[in-house]
Inverse folding.
């Protein structure tokens, strides 16, 4: 049988056990020992599951308390000075949490490190902070401890670690930029590589044969200096005597395939789901001893694989390479739910189309069996079931909606353009009468246990529609009265009825399906349950109008209608793979266009259409950018183009770099854009300043991903920095993101300080 292995497994647990344990620990309701016990139990469970699927090794090092880049940063001892880490002591778990959240059960609060998206996924990592004279050392033993832990359970292991070039590329600091080919960061390799070498030596001393080193930046447009750095870096790492599997994923290597030629590694993993066309190019540069790990099962989506197609792609390579061909998922399975078997409420037909992490390992085993000289009866049966499911899905009447397809064809002539911004903003200001530095929030308010229980009971039928609506209306009124009391200018209804900013809309749109336990980690303890877009998207009825209209009836101040944009719904769902993503996005845009015009007709004069995933959807290769940006911008304008000029359109984007796509951000032509800037200390405003961004902008002054309450002086200082870069009359004051995950006491304190900051700015 061909060797099968896995690049990584979901760490949260099928019932989100890790999330619950982390949050209990942070809240002081669980001890560190209890938290560690949860981690051990999850790791043991997942290793056993993977071993039973026939993998040659189980991955070790893919488990992380917050994210794998932060774990590695702490192992390297690269802790910023403000966290007070002694240079000769191990980095404690609470220090790791303070880097991520700004606070932990022990240790002084400090400003959390910046967080951003992991390539083009909805997973986040904590950005390493780099300094020119930074020293490195092995400062945490978690990797070695977990290797011993797995070995003690009888498992063969393959440790998984971030590559040195990728770790540096992802980092930033006062002297360095993140990514973007900053060659100055390469000067840090001299101090970094010896510690990598020490790590590999310690791994080898534990009796390990193979190590997986992840270098996903090989899917990017790399400057020549970075390409050249691979040779010397891996010559150093190869001296450890460990066999190195260099793993790339998410994109075609393209010209970077030449970086691998002659590289002193023992094997290469490539993503053949995203880029099957790269197979022949990679085969030509392998020498006669190197392994090819072929990523043939999607680690990014939940559809069953076409194993016949995968087998056809790889069969010739299997003949050529023999035992030097390994099979694997395309990337870590971190990005998909754990196990389809716990989904009891999905109908049988739809369920037969799906594959989660556990099932993907089964698919891998069947694929390996199909390449054998003699295919066994079990493999033949499994292949037949796979073919039947794919055929049923392709021919199902549930997928296609003629009405949606007809409207999509007609949408070419639908208006997207509004009057010029200067003309619009004058009419909006006349209608709204807002002060300078107007204040607002991003949308959601704290989701209390009472809200969650009421929503759960209603969905389970234990609460009547009338009782549920009464409870939600009471919550909306409380939120409106609180905002009026503290003096916010543009209010929100707080979104108590929404479980998630994407799932909520998916539940009300045609063409979507939902799971009960299809949780995926977004960052830290934050998990999302992406809906599944299996068919054409339609809006049977209004989705938000009644809640927004009720909130507006309670106050004379403007209340924003709150929607999630078409690109973000697309990006944060598991999307059908039988048509272009742009087509699905335009279907979403047309559904949202109807909602926007209905909100306006109901008297809502400010409508926010959130697009935090706009940058996330950008392809990794620049040559592919424009095609994506063209349809992404078009979809946003298609959703907003039906309103009057004096209806104010907001959008929100968080944790994104805007410098290289600022023209497209401007082309979206939202009247107001709110962005994350508190963790990055207003750094992101540079793109808007250099471009002379013409519309209004709200640079976030309150980091909602940390429990720390920002000080008044800090927020005033941030906004003064902003007003030094952009016209003050174009600035809004708001948090970085929604307040759903925060508690009421910190929310009240932070927003009160934020309003006072705006008042201070108006009179100084």
């Amino acid at each position: 049988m061909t060797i099968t292995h896995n690049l990584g497994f979901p760490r949260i647990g099928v019932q989100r056990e890790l999330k619950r344990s982390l949050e209990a620990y942070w809240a002081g309701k669980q001890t560190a020992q209890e938290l560690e016990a949860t981690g051990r139990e999850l790791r043991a469970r997942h290793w056993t599951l993977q071993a039973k699927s026939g993998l040659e090794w189980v991955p070790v090092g893919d488990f992380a308390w917050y994210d794998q880049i932060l774990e590695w940063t702490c192992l390297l001892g690269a802790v910023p000075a403000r966290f007070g880490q002694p240079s000769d002591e191990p980095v404690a778990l609470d220090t790791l949490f303070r880097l991520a959240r700004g606070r932990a059960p022990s240790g002084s609060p400090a400003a959390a490190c910046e967080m951003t998206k992991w390539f083009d996924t909805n997973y986040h990592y904590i950005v390493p902070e780099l300094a020119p004279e930074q020293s490195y050392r092995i400062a945490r033993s978690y990797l070695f401890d977990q290797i011993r832990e797995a070995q003690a359970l009888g498992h063969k292991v393959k440790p998984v670690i971030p590559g040195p070039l990728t770790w540096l590329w992802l980092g930033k600091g006062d002297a360095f930029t993140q990514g973007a080919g900053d060659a100055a960061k390469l000067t840090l390799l001299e101090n970094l590589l010896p510690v990598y070498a020490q790590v590999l030596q310690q791994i080898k001393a534990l009796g390990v044969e193979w190590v997986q080193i992840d270098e996903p930046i090989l899917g990017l447009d790399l400057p020549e200096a970075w390409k050249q750095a691979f040779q010397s870096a891996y010559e150093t790492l190869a001296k450890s005597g460990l066999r190195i599997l260099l793993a790339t994923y998410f994109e075609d290597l393209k010209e970077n395939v030449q970086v691998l030629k002659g590289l002193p590694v023992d094997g290469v993993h490539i993503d053949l789901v995203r880029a099957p066309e790269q197979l022949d190019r990679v085969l030509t540069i392998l020498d006669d001893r190197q392994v090819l790990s072929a990523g043939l099962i999607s680690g990014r989506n939940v559809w069953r694989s076409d194993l016949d197609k995968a087998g056809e792609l790889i069969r010739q390579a299997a003949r050529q390479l023999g035992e030097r061909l390994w099979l694997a998922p395309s990337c870590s399975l971190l990005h998909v739910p754990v196990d389809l078997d716990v989904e009891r409420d999905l109908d049988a037909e739809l369920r037969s189309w799906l594959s989660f992490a556990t099932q993907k390992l089964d698919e891998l085993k069947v694929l390996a069996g199909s390449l054998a000289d003699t295919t066994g009866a079990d493999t033949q049966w499994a292949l037949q079931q796979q073919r039947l499911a794919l055929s049923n899905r392709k021919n199902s009447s549930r997928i296609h909606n003629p009405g949606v397809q007809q409207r999509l064809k007609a949408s070419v002539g639908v208006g997207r353009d509004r009057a010029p911004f200067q003309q619009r903003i004058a009419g909006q200001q006349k209608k709204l009468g807002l002060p300078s530095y107007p204040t607002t929030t991003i949308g959601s308010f704290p989701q209390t246990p009472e809200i969650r229980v009421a929503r759960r009971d209603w969905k389970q039928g234990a609460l009547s529609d009338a009782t549920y609506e009464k409870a939600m209306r009471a919550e909306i009124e409380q939120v409106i009265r609180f905002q009026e009391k503290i003096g916010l200018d543009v209010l929100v209804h707080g979104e108590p009825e929404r479980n998630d900013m994407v799932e909520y809309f998916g539940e009300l749109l045609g063409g979507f399906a939902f799971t009960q336990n299809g949780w995926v980690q977004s960052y830290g303890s934050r998990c999302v349950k992406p809906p599944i877009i299996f068919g054409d998207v339609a809006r049977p009825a209004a989705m938000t109008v009644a809640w927004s209209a009720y909130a507006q009836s309670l106050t004379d101040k403007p209340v924003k209608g709150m929607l999630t944009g078409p690109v973000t719904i697309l990006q944060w769902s598991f999307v059908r793979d039988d048509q272009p993503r742009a087509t699905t996005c335009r279907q979403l845009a047309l559904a949202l266009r109807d909602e926007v015009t209905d909100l306006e007709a109901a008297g809502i004069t400010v409508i926010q259409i959130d697009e935090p995933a706009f940058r996330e959807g950008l392809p990794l290769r620049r040559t592919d950018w424009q095609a994506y940006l063209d349809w992404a911008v078009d979809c946003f304008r298609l959703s907003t183009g039906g309103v009057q000029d004096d209806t104010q359109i907001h959008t929100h984007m968080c944790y994104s770099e805007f410098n290289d796509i600022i023209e497209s951000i401007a082309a979206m032509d939202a009247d107001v854009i709110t962005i994350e800037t508190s963790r990055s200390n207003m750094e992101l405003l540079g793109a808007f300043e250099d471009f002379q961004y013409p519309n209004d902008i709200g640079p976030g002054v309150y980091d909602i991903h940390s429990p720390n309450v920002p000080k008044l002086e800090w927020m005033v200082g941030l906004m003064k920095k902003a007003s030094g870069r952009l016209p003050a009359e174009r600035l809004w004051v708001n948090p970085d993101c929604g307040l759903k995950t925060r508690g009421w006491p910190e929310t009240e304190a932070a927003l009160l300080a934020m309003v006072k900051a705006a008042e201070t700015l108006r009179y100084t």
Notes: The longest strand covers residues 291-297.
